Amino acid sequence: MLPLSMCVLFSSALFVIFKLFSRFKIQTLYAIITNYFTASLFATFFYDGPIHYSELPAKPWFMGTLTLGMLFIVVFNITAKTSQNLGVSVASVAAKMSLVIPVMMGVLLYREELGTIKVIGIVLALAAVYFSSIKNRTITVKVESLILPLLLFMGSGMVDAGIKYLQTNNMVAADFPLFSAVVFGAAGTTGLLFILINSKRKPLKINLKNLVGGIILGSFNYFTIHFLLLALENKALNSASIFTIINVGTVLFSTLMGIILFKEQLSAKNWAGLGLAVISIVLVALF
Fold it and tell me: Is 52 left (phi over 0), alpha (psi -120 to 50) or beta?
């Protein structure tokens, strides 16, 4: 249970760190790029053995990891914007309700059964994303308030499904640090190329706050993936149960931190969204 608990702790901390970025005027994109290179260095440090970089492309997970790395930086940027614009609890719920996507992938790829109760759970998860995003007192559908949580929902689900697929089909436990190093390195390189291309319009400037924020974020980010991969190795629990425990724990813990640290105010609809989130995960995982 230790990897599960630690994954919840580090995953919840990411949302809080993103929230602090706006408070300390840290530029999110630059900090995120620094974060990925930091996490990649952490991964190489924890790899037990020599690293032969020329042999990495021959690894069965290599190409998939490059694609996943590019998706990482997109999702991280969306996570940051959602936390800053709509709150830690909204970002947490939107990201963690994406549990339904790896569940659907299980149906398609691993022929797992999806009964009526699980379908109800998926519908409730979508409702949870909506209700947790409402910031006004009347139920008014505003595209600008829904688009970030929905994008985060889809992106996080694709990341979880991708990690599970590569971990199940292409990886051995000894390769976990190498996998993490490549996926984080790919994400950082993608972001670096993006800002270099745009540097003609907006010259690059070294900012100490961005670097420090990125290093802090990267250390937490590495351990989030590290403990997730360790948790998925648990033989006593299937992947649906593991994702459920992690996602529910992160939703509740990050929401609690949002209330305590940032005095976030949750409306009745927001609380209803959190309640639906818990119910939906239980339905999807246990039935």
Answer: beta
pLDDT range class, residue 53, cuts 50, 70, 90: confident
% residues pLDDT > 90 (the chain): 20
Structural domain range at position 220 = 2-286
* pTM, full prediction: 0.81
Total domains present in the chain:
1
For the stretch 218-248, pLDDT in tens is 999 999 999 988 888 877 777 777 777 787 7
Task: Give the Cα separation of 22 and 74 in Å (integer).
Answer: 18
Residue 172 and residue 233: Cα distance in Å, rounded?
10
